[in-house]
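Example record for the data management plan.
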Amino acid sequence: MEISARHVLLIEDSESVADLVKATLSSAHGSFDLEWCRDLTSGLKKMRGFPFDIVLLELSLSDSSGIDTLLRVRHERPETPIVVLTRDEDQAKAMRGISEGAQDWVTKATLNPASLPRILHFAIERHNSSHPLPASRQGKIFTFIGSKGGVGTTTVALNVAAALASSEYQTVATEWCWPRGHFSLYLAQKPAKDLSAIGTLAPRLITGSRLKRLAVAAYRNLTLLHGPQSAAEFHYLNPAQAEAFVKSLCEISDFTVIDLPNYPSAVSRAAVRHSAVTVVVLERSAESLVLANETLSMVQSWAGPDTLTTAVIVNKGGPVPSIAIEALYSQLHCNAAGMVSPSDELVPGFFGQVPITLSRPRTLAAESLVDIATRLASGHLHPETTSKEVFVAK
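Corresponding structural encoding:
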């Protein structure tokens, strides 16, 4: 059975102590991943960007001292257990530290390094047993599937995610496609973390907290869960893994945008089944229209009882033979949430490797994408209350 490594934040001003802790935890058979910060300011900043399992804290730092150091860490992340590792041997202060929420108080003079892994494990378990997890957030999922490759699905998905996030919603964008994820190609950044390990885990180990650890901060309220970065790292998920993956996505954000390829998979079926809205992306061409209707038939067979299905039309312009808008809308087998206007960026939909809904928000293409994001967030896509004409981009 695979045991997930515990993520430990050490806030400690002594390099020799930090080296000792690193050496001790690195010999604990992969049970711990350690981050080290020299002062409280950098430690708190690190905590804001990553959900650590535990904090190992020295109270006397260059920018904070005493119990106030503990209180500031507790205030930053009340859900994270803290073990105080300090030079201070004052027993009265130790008792106060425990009463203020520290799980343990260890003095450096008495520390046996070999006992540190056990101290951390026990602190995490004590904290978790006395702090039951809050009710899970149940965010909405928007799944984007292209009628074929190259229609602009990833461009639309990332721009819609960025638009949702800029509207004060906590938003996650993720992808799952063979042979590798596409987000990093569009954003021209190699991610520090990705989802490659998910395919090797038992379903019960695929949780919201694990996904949070794999998320990469992008812009404002948007985080990215990058797909595996090579074919060698990619694993097809079985139905139970896919179900756990998609359900966990609902727990970690207000909105999750999933970018998926146009072929059947366990992830595609689970994503569509749990989606508030499934969006089929197509070009303004006769070929893409035919393939879009076939894709709609496929995804509608997977849809849950509350899943709405819509389409987004990408008007690329250029040499692709286009179909008249009236004919396209009359032959499309669902309502459309909008049409994306042509964009003139070197990489369409991105300016300086940033989605145009953030980097060029006043362009026609960006405005059409923001409008689509607004419609998805509001849920005003039900075929009984909308008509195709409403959604034609002007």
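Summary line stored alongside the record: The two ends are 56 Å apart (CA to CA).
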